[in-house]
Amino acid sequence: MAHRYREADVEDEHVLEKINELAHEEHALWEREGHGGLSPAEQERLRDLGVRLDQCWDLLHQRRARRNAGTNPDDATVRDERTVEGYTG
Question: Is the pTM of this model over 0.90?
Answer without folding.
Answer: no
